TrEMBL record, chain A:
PANTHER family reported for this sequence: CELL CYCLE PROTEIN, PEPTIDOGLYCAN GLYCOSYLTRANSFERASE RODA
Transmembrane segments: 17-34, 46-67, 74-91, 111-128, 140-161, 173-194, 215-232, 238-255, 262-283, 341-363, 383-404, 416-435
Record InterPro entries: FtsW/RodA
Any one annotated GO CC term: cell division site
Swiss-Prot/TrEMBL GO biological process terms: cell division; regulation of cell shape
UniProt keyword Protein transport present: no
Protein name (Swiss-Prot/TrEMBL): FtsW/RodA/SpoVE family cell cycle protein
Extent of Gly residues compositional bias: 487-499
Coiled-coil stretches: none
Keywords tagged on the record: Cell shape, Membrane, Transmembrane, Transmembrane helix
Location in the cell: Membrane
UniProt region (Disordered), positions on chain: 467-525
TrEMBL record, chain B:
PANTHER family, alphabetized: PENICILLIN-BINDING PROTEIN 4B, PEPTIDOGLYCAN D,D-TRANSPEPTIDASE
Pfam families assigned to the protein according to its UniProt record, in alphabetical order: PBP_dimer_2, Transpeptidase
GO biological process: cell wall organization
Span of domain Penicillin-binding protein transpeptidase: 155-484
Domain of life per record: Bacteria
Domain Penicillin binding protein A dimerisation: 52-134
A GO cellular-component term linked to this record: plasma membrane
Protein's UniProt name: Penicillin-binding protein 2
MF-aspect GO terms: penicillin binding; peptidoglycan L,D-transpeptidase activity
The organism of origin for this protein: Cellulosimicrobium arenosum
Length: 525, 489
């Protein structure tokens, strides 16, 4: 991801179209196979549903051509493929319902939510013409995030589902506001950190080889820590707590490049988690289930036994290398096979091969997001893209790690695949933002680079409309200032308009080789 | 900020690698352990979710699977379950399989290597191929006749076609209904199994071929007679001692004849007459005279102590004991000569003795599976009749046949007489545990000149006749009913 070929500055949306057709074929094909395997016929309304999915995917592609022509070409197809696989699995679980008794009918709702999510995602892309617009709402985002997190605690609104108070009931729908809060928090962290990162990065005492921050700078991290613990304690949701805290620590590190923050963050979280484990039974039970799931006593405990986790492991084992094939496993034996444990459901029927492919798809998506963060010029964009990409990876890690016993099981959902409208919508918005930022990152800029004269005149391209006074020109972004900090240039490379003496590794060689082509700030990538 | 972003990218990569490793660990390296965990019902589901082939008797399925809407996918059901249970066995989610369901599992489930083409077709078409069907040698008329004739008495009946070894009837009573064990409700199936295990009369014990073996009693006199004739020193007309009593060595007691009668006023009689009236003292004395080794050799020539017999269900070996050890001395051989003491036989074994005599001394390997056909009804496997061993010479077989005809014509087995058919047979009234009524035996074949069927019947503890029972009175009519069913069918 270090070198960005000049060719990439062309939209190259044809590549996306090709990948999209493949992605649609995977999703719709899986849907067809599920129907054929379980009912010996194509699913009811197959052509209608399949056609609608294809139409939505292709419309998304066309809209990207119009709204964000330079956006990353891989993200949309990957997300469509994952979403399609998820839909097929949920449909399959709807059909194969003998085990748990009683039909479930979740696929239509999920399909509906996919459509809504895609519409919302494109509304976001359309509204947020430039991601830097979001920076104006830094503190609004904080408030929104905290309100969202607190919503389930509001009497009459919050619903306790399966022991975790992370749901609210709105218009008859159960929503998980935390999924949206992660976006709000990512915006808040990005805005806050891009402004304050120098302060945070400034040297405090150095202890045991760790450059520690000054005590008074610990304020924000303490607040986030407290919020995370509050979620853990009051909403009994280890997953969301872990999600926010991981997001914050990662973004803090990206902003400051201080390992000390990571260490402090992990220590704080560990202390909080251990304290919670000691104080609250449900966390302790989770840990015991994690460590000794096969103990007869732990397995048989009800509630809070390891039956679900072990059931998932049995499902994965049954799948083996190549899986049982669509419809031939028994995924419904595991509670929440369509949401929390859809990874095990997929593993049972698609096998290790299928799961590795799915993990790779996620990895591509996340790395594309991080690549966007590297490529984008402004610090806010870098932090936001980096944070959003990381939170997706982190969420997946927490979910899958919980099912495969790397960490204790928590209640997070697999982005795009797991059944659940909130998760689907929130993650589509995440992708919308990443697409928007990537469009910005790859869009040829007409801006002159500080210290360089724009070669041969400015390229005839509409300048990016920047909110907040259009002060986008070199050196104007607030986060560009810290170059003044003596001897610390390297650590504050993120500003879109580095003077060019940042990290040597960050300097694309083409910039030197073909200066006339490069109309971007030197150190941005 | 690009430097930390790249580091984050690396961390993300490591996180994904961790997920891949943990998933691989579970799905590949730990899969077998997890699959074998007794709590893993998937393993059971997978094993039982197959379109099992039927077990067929004379064109009708007595065991078959039908698709059902539950996790197992297919429900096994049995027609005339108790009647055929000793042959079909059961196919139970909870309790496993038995008999044909177990012995032919590879074919029934479609896993057998010779069915690879069917599996491949299934893989391509996406349809689950049905397992092969197993067609039995059982003659439904004979099976039903044996079942009816035994009535409520405990015991077993085995009928064999002497020339081939085809098993025509195999009944064990009391029996059980395999349908109760095939329930997919594990609680129900377990309860049924428990109930049958504890039930009076041990209904799941296959008395015809396994589990309990019985003292063959006087039916074993066929073996003793065969040993005598084979020795070359005897003919059916050879006169042998037949004292009223024979004292047991080192004992104040002595062997008597049935009912304490005297076999012959002269104290001696021909071998044929001794067999005809089933004289104990004569055969006890003959056994001692021939010697333990001669008896055992002859018994083994009839299939005693053959551990490897499968039909294809495993058959418990019948047993001729070592009697000439110091502690048993001649007392053992004395008893062994009349099928008492430690001699043990299955009903199948005694049917095989008659069948060998009927088939000119050649014993054919008994079998219950005629053909195995794939779902397209092509024959996948066919059992060819196989010579198991030569039990006696042709002339001995002829002599024994004549002697057995005498038993039925005017001896102990007259109740097996059939109009117009020459029946050769031998009764047995086997003393059992002291205080218990003797087991009633009868083994026979017919017609004597062209044997179509050989039968062995045991009625435990004399059945409904109790201590008054004799093989001739209780067991012979059952054998007759079975032979009639075969000959008239």
């Amino acid at each position: 991801m270090t070198t960005v070929d000049t060719d990439e500055r062309r939209p190259r949306r044809g590549a996306e179209l090709g990948l999209l057709v493949l992605a649609l074929a995977i999703g719709i094909g899986a849907y067809a196979v599920v129907g054929l395997q379980l009912t010996d016929a194509l699913p009811e309304h197959f052509y209608l549903v399949g056609g609608a999915i294809a139409a939505f995917g292709l419309t998304a592609h066309v809209l990207l051509r119009v709204l964000a022509p330079y956006a990353d070409q891989v993200m949309l197809p990957v997300v469509i493929a994952l979403n399609g696989i998820g839909l097929a699995m949920i449909y399959r679980l709807d059909l194969g319902s003998q085990v748990t008794g009683g039909d479930q009918n979740l696929a239509p709702g999920q399909l509906q939510f996919t459509a809504i999510s895609m519409v919302v995602a494109f509304v976001v892309i359309w509204l947020v013409r430039d991601h830097r617009l979001l920076r104006r709402y830094t503190y609004t985002a904080m408030v929104v995030g905290i309100v969202l997190v607190a919503l389930p605690l509001v009497p009459g609104l919050g619903v306790n589902i399966h022991g975790a108070e992370i749901w609210i009931n709105l218009f008859g729908y159960s929503l998980q506001p935390a999924e949206f809060a992660k976006i709000a928090f990512a915006i808040f962290f990005a805005g806050y950190l891009v402004t304050n990162r120098d302060t945070l990065a400034l040297a405090g005492p150095k202890i045991l080889g760790l450059q520690l921050p000054r005590l008074r700078d610990l304020g924000p991290i303490i607040i986030v820590w407290l919020v995370s613990l509050a979620i853990l304690v009051f909403e009994r949701d280890l997953g969301t707590s872990l999600l926010f805290f991981g997001l914050f620590v990662a973004m803090l590190y990206i902003a400051t490049e201080r390992v000390s923050w990571v260490v402090i963050g992990l220590l704080l979280f560990a202390v909080g988690a251990v304290a919670a484990t000691v104080m609250f039974g449900h966390v302790e039970a989770r840990v015991e289930v994690w460590l000794h799931p096969f103990d007869a006593e732990v397995y048989g405990r009800d509630p809070g036994g390891s039956g679900q986790l072990v059931g998932g492991l049995f499902g994965l084992a049954n799948g083996g290398l190549f899986g049982t094939g669509w419809g031939a496993g028994y995924p419904r034996l595991v509670p929440f096979a369509q949401s929390d444990f859809i990874y095990a459901s997929l593993g049972e029927e698609l096998g290790l091969t299928g799961l590795l492919a799915i993990l790779l798809a996620y990895l591509i998506l996340v790395e594309r997001g991080l690549r966007t963060a590297v490529a984008v010029r402004d610090g806010f964009g870098k932090l936001l893209a980096g944070g959003l990409a990381f939170v997706m990876a982190w969420q997946l890690f927490v979910v899958v790690g919980g099912i495969t016993r790397i960490i204790p099981l928590t209640g997070l959902t697999m982005p795009f695949i797991a059944q659940g409208g909130s998760s689907l919508l929130a993650n589509w918005i995440v992708v919308a933002l990443l697409l928007r930022i990537s469009d910005n990152a790859r869009r040829p800029s007409s801006l002159p680079v500080r210290g360089q004269v724009a070669p041969g005149g400015v390229r005839a391209h509409e300048p990016v409309a920047v909110p907040g006074g259009g002060a986008v020109h070199a050196g104007a972004m607030p986060d560009d200032a810290p170059t003044a900090v003596g001897g610390r240039v390297g650590s504050v490379d993120g500003g879109g308009t580095d003077t060019g003496h940042g990290h040597a590794t960050d300097q694309p060689t083409e910039v030197v080789a073909r200066p006339s082509d490069d109309d971007q700030p030197g150190g941005a990538r | 900020m690009n430097h930390p972003l790249r580091r984050v990218a690396t961390v993300v990569l490591v996180m994904f690698l961790a997920l891949m490793v943990s998933t691989t660990w579970i799905q590949f390296f730990r899969a077998e352990t997890l699959d074998n965990d007794p709590r893993n019902v998937r393993t059971i589901y997978r094993e039982y979710d197959n379109y099992r082939g039927p077990i067929v008797v004379a064109g009708d399925a007595v065991a078959s699977s039908a698709p059902v809407d539950d996790p197992f996918g297919f429900q096994r059901s049995y027609t005339d379950g108790p009647l055929y249970a000793p042959v079909t066995g059961y196919f139970s989610v909870v309790n496993g399989t038995s008999e044909i369901e177990s012995a032919e599992n590879d074919y029934l489930s479609g896993e057998a290597s010779s069915l690879w083409l069917d599996r491949l077709t299934g893989l391509v078409t996406g349809e689950q191929p049905q397992g092969a069907s197993v067609e039995l040698t059982i003659d439904p008329a004979a099976q039903q006749a044996a079942w009816d004739a035994l009535g409520d008495q405990r015991g077993a009946v085995v009928a064999i076609e002497p020339a081939t070894g085809r098993v025509l009837a195999l009944v064990s009573k009391p029996s059980y209904d395999p349908n109760t064990l095939a329930s997919h409700d594990s609680g129900e199936a377990s309860a049924a199994f428990q109930e049958l295990s504890n039930a009076d009369g041990d209904p799941m014990s296959n008395r015809a071929i396994r589990g309990k073996t019985y003292p063959p009693g006087s039916t074993f006199k066929l073996v003793t007679s065969a040993a005598a004739l084979e020795s070359g020193d005897y003919t059916p007309e050879t006169v042998i001692p037949a004292p009223d009593t024979i004292p047991y060595p080192q004992s104040s007691q002595s062997m008597q004849n049935f009912g304490g009668i005297s076999c012959s006023p002269s104290g001696e009689m021909t071998l044929a007459d001794a067999l005809r009236i089933s004289c104990n003292t004569a055969f006890a004395d003959l056994g001692v005279t021939l010697g333990d080794d001669a008896l055992r050799d002859q018994a083994e020539d009839f299939g005693f102590d053959d551990d490897g017999l499968t039909i294809p269900m495993r058959v418990t070996a019948s047993h001729f004991p070592t009697n000439d050890t110091e502690e048993s001395d001649e007392g053992g051989t004395l008893r062994a000569g009349i099928g008492q003491g430690a001699v043990r036989a299955t009903p199948l074994q005694m049917a095989m003795v008659s069948a060998a005599i009927a088939n000119d001394g050649v014993q054919m390997a008994p079998y219950t599976v005629e053909t195995v056909r794939n779902p397209d009804l092509d024959v996948v496997r066919k059992t060819d009749p196989r010579r198991l061993r030569t039990s006696v010479s042709s002339s001995t077989a002829e002599d024994l046949t004549q002697m057995m005809l005498g038993v039925v014509q005017n001896g102990s087995g007259t109740s097996a007489q059939m109009p117009g058919v020459q029946v050769a047979g031998k009764t047995g009234t086997a003393e059992n545990v002291p205080g218990e009524a003797p087991h009633a035996w009868f083994t026979s074949f017919a017609p004597a000149d062209d044997p179509q069927v050989a039968v062995a019947v045991i009625v435990e503890n004399g059945g409904s006749s109790g201590s008054e029972a004799t093989g001739g009175a209780v067991a012979a009519p059952i054998a007759k009913a079975v032979m009639e069913a075969v000959l008239n069918g």
